[in-house]
Each structure stands twice: as structure tokens, then as C-alpha cells.
Amino acid sequence: MATVSNLFVDAGADYSTIITVAATNGQPLNLTGYSVASQMRKSYSSSTVYNFTTSVYDASQGKVRLQLNNSQSSAIPAGRWLYEVDITSPSGTQTRVLEGIVTVTPEITR
Fold first, then answer.
1. Which residues fall within 8 angstroms of residue 41, CB to CB, at 6 or more apart?
2. In whole angstroms, what is the distance from residue 35 CA to residue 73 CA?
3. Is the pLDDT of residue 1 over 80?
4. Stretch 47-71: mean pLDDT, rounded?
């Protein structure tokens, strides 16, 4: 089961966060050879999607980075969005490791 964590993004600003993926024993999962993906949508069935730029930041410590540059965050309408983070093992097993709500606050200075 995925961990639930809510994120807050300021539209028009760069955004970056690092998460740690844990193994079942609670220790960081070694992510060597893994890939990661993350999307946000207004609802589960929404066809409109915004992608986080994702990367394995520190494989041995189970760290993953989610990023949006200022152009990407400006393109997302203000409001509440659903998101998830999936990892894919070298053998192709896909696992949802994080999910929650992204609150995008509107941009004032342009």
C-alpha cells in the first residue's frame, strides 16, 4: 500500500521535493536500476494530465526527486489535484509508493 502525503506547489515557481522509498522492513529500498514516474490529474478518470519530472536521486538510499520548473507549474490551473508516484523494478514490476493531493496555489506576479 502506498504512503499518503499531500504536496503544495506555487504556480509559476520552481518546485522540487525528495522522497524516500522504504522496503517492507522499513529500511530505504535500493533503487539501482529502477525507473520512476509521477502524474497528477483532477480526478481519477480525468484525461488531462500533468507530469512531474522524476529521477532516482540517490539509488542506494531509496531517494526519488519530483520536480516542476516554473513553466510547468504555471501551466497547471490552481486547485486540488490527485497524484501518485510509481516505481518500476529492473524486472518490470510496477509499484505505487506514494499518493495524495497536490494543492496548486495561483500565481500573482507575472
1. 48, 49, 50, 81, 82, 83
2. 23
3. no
4. 97
pTM of the complete model: 0.91
pLDDT per position as a tens digit, 9-35: 999 999 999 999 999 899 999 999 999
DSSP for the chain reads --EE--EEEETTS-EEEEEE-B-TTSSBPP-TT-EEEEEEESSTT-S--EEPEEEEEEGGGTEEEEEE-HHHHHTSPSEEEEEEEEEE-TT--EEEEEEEEEEEEPP---
Cell 522504504: give the residue.
Answer: 22
For 33-52, the pLDDT digits (tens) are: 999 999 999 999 999 999 99
CA distances from 108 to 6, 10, 38, 74 (A): 23, 10, 27, 11
